[in-house]
Amino acid sequence: MVSARQLRKGLPPQRGKDGALRKALLKWFAEARRPLPWRERYDPYQVWISEIMLQQTQVETVLPYFARWMAAFPDVAAVAGAPQEELLKAWEGLGYYSRARNLGRAARRIVTDHGGVLPASPEVLRSLPGIGPYTAGAIASIGFNISTPAVDGNVSRVLGRLFALPDPVNTPRGQARVWEIAARLVPVRNARAFNEGLMELGALVCRARAPACNACPLANHCAAYARGTPEAFPRKQPRARRRGLRGVLLLLGRGKRVLLRKRPGEGLWGGLWEIPWLERRRGEGCAAALARLLDGLELPLCAPPRKLGVVDHGLTHIQMHLDCYRAEIKEEHSSARASTPSGQPLRWAAPGTLRKLPLARLSHKAIALGWEPAHQRTDPGGGAPRRTDPGGGPAPRPVGKRGKMV
Ligand code: SF4
Question: pTM for the complete prediction?
């Protein structure tokens, strides 16, 4: 148990206690570990891919993606040789697409600089794109059983509670303390099982809410439990609130096809295709924003845009709220631009192509609102071909139930 003096000062137990804590964790993990596919052979390549996929993502979500990825890209060379759009397509829906782009970059570096073999050293791993301190520690310890710490969100929470750490774990000072303790605890042998055990304990027992302390193998070592306030730890500095973003999105149809725009290579949804949208300016109405979105495309609409509904989409720092419209241009119109004035590529995609292209999830949500090729609709929304300025045209039709066509 932790002494009263240690509790007061928020200090970790004496070194002599570390062995008992390790032993209890390893014993529990040997019995409780989930049989996950990347744990079958502990192949370093599979461990690398799983660790990248598991960042910010639940195990249940990752499982089908991991299986599809391994079928498409069974080794480093397959990733290195794949076009970026193929990697992004395999990643579609997982979010944080820089992870997929960095996998491609790192794989090419492994082929050119390391003979196609994933390096085992945490320091060398950290020099690869997309591999930070945690991922380097996880690949080295889980993939190669090297004695090195790996601190992710689960481990921060478990250690923050075990030692009732006074500093918020999401600050540099708090993180430094957690890494220091993790480095002290990780055994010389069996680092793989120890690090995985800490992560597994965080996922299954020492959960963010309602930790199952009564079933915890480390309860006798836990300072937060001894205080009777496990959920008061780990201490955290409040995050900045999500920024609200209001915008408009336009599903622009041309016969069986819909207009797509390619995102810039870096940043949010980098390299993916999307249904064109933009953020409204302060005080700007939907009609004016739609006119701005259309500006420069020089496409003659058949009729004013019709409102389809609303899409809400949450990102880590942004909560998006987009009013979604649909409009048509004449099928025979062939002078569609190949790019926006700012140089973003445009393309008209038929349903079959839509399924093959990597598409931002926001666009999938908008398509689900009711886009279907014009020839399949009973109401073609026809009329004489004309350029319609949505700012000066009829007011958008009222919106009904969210997500329903009106
Ligand atoms: S006793 Fe409770 S708070 Fe402490 S490590 Fe176990 S589950 Fe977490």
Answer: 0.76
